[in-house]
Amino acid sequence: MAKYLSYELKNALINVCGRFFWYKQPLFDIFARASIPEEMYLKYENEAKFKVARNLIDDLEIMGEDGWLMQRKLVTELCKLRNLPDSEVPDRDAGLDALRNLGDNPWDHLK
Question: Is residue 75 assigned to a domain?
């Protein structure tokens, strides 16, 4: 049976990627910590962070079990964050709200 992030969890994850990070490199570092191969996200490096995240999740979804494990690791890595990695984030509150909206227990929304 295929496993997917719920619509709500997927959107919360994309929102964190777009709002919590100001520069792309710290976001890419999180992808690397989630064991996502560099070539998967660097092919979208010229896109906006929201679009990078959405495209990457779409790619991971079609990978089956390996992609599912990487998605879980990514959500877990994001949930470990407590403070914005970049002081230049223009709307600090929106970034922190996006992280809070990811939830304390994001796995309650599995599909």
Answer: yes
| Whole-number pLDDT of residue 103 | 73
C-alpha to C-alpha distance for 49 and 53, rounded to whole angstroms: 6
Q: By C-alpha distance, which of 70, 111, 91 is closest to 20? A: 91
pLDDT at 41 over 50: yes
Tell me which residue range forms the domain holding 20: 7-101
| Identity of residue 20 | F
Q: Name the DSSP letter for residue 44.
A: T
Query: Is the whole-model pTM more than 0.85?
Result: yes
Q: Give the contacts of 85 (CB within 8 A, at least 6 positions apart).
A: 20, 21, 23, 26
Could you tell me if residue 51 is inside a domain?
A: yes
